[in-house]
Design brief:
With 178 residues, the chain is α/β, with parallel strands linked by helices. It has one domain (3-177): Ribonuclease H-like superfamily/Ribonuclease H (Nucleotidyltransferase, domain 5, 2-Layer Sandwich). The chain is 38% helix and 22% strand. The protein is built from seven helices and six strands; from the N terminus they run βββααβαβααααβ. The protein has a six-stranded mixed beta sheet, with helices on both faces. A hairpin with a 7-residue loop joins strand 1 and strand 2 (18-27). Helix 4 (114-121) runs parallel beside helix 6 (147-165). The chain is globular. 35% of the residues are buried. One of its GO terms (cellular component) is cytosol. One of its GO terms (biological process) is DNA replication. One of its GO terms (molecular function) is 3'-5' exonuclease activity.
């Protein structure tokens, strides 16, 4: 499979408060490239979110704002590209809201949620949280809630699902965004 796994972390509960993003490029079931950056959101950091992901306001003081990051990652969001995330509703919502905040048009792309696929393909699992899936599927997850670590784990989950079940069940839950 060829796809890009995406993960955002946010500064607070607002969807337009992205403070980090990671993209992991997969070609022929192999991770071939990675992108990670901190992002300086134009809003406050909640202590709750910072405790979860370990990113604080001072960490992003010199980081680019999202409108400076977007030109580097926009090529991954086209109608021919599949973008994958775990709990994609969250990550797609963050992308959409952050784009709107900067008056950047939302791109058209294909999206797949490994939370949805795992619920269909592994109904026997206790839950389908990213860390639980990684444990059950024997996929390393060393720094949960780090966008890059979570993107890599998400990519490996989808690769494993495709190898175990084929791509037909995955195509059934792929959505068109934008």
């Amino acid at each position: 499979m060829n796809f890009v796994a995406m993960d955002f972390e946010t500064a607070n509960g607002q969807r337009d408060s992205a403070c980090s993003i990671a993209l992991v490029v997969v070609r022929n079931d192999q991770i071939v490239d990675q992108f990670y950056t901190l992002i300086k959101p134009e809003t406050y950091f909640s202590s709750r979110n910072s405790q979860i992901h370990g990113i604080y306001e001072e960490d992003v003081a010199q980081a680019p704002k999202f409108d400076q990051v977007w030109p580097h990652i926009a090529p991954f969001f086209t109608p021919q590209k599949l973008v994958v995330a775990h709990n994609a509703t969250f990550d797609i919502g963050v992308l959409r809201s952050t784009l709107q905040h900067y008056d950047i048009p939302e791109p058209h792309y294909l999206a797949l949620d490994t939370l949805t696929t795992s619920r269909r393909l592994y109904p026997q699992f206790e839950n389908h949280k990213l860390n639980t899936l990684c444990t059950n599927l024997e996929i390393p997850l060393e720094n949960h809630h780090n966008a890059l670590a979570d993107s890599i784990a998400c990519a490996k989950i989808l690769i494993k699902e495709a190898q175990e079940f084929g791509t037909d069940p995955l195509k059934q839950v792929t959505k068109i965004i934008g």
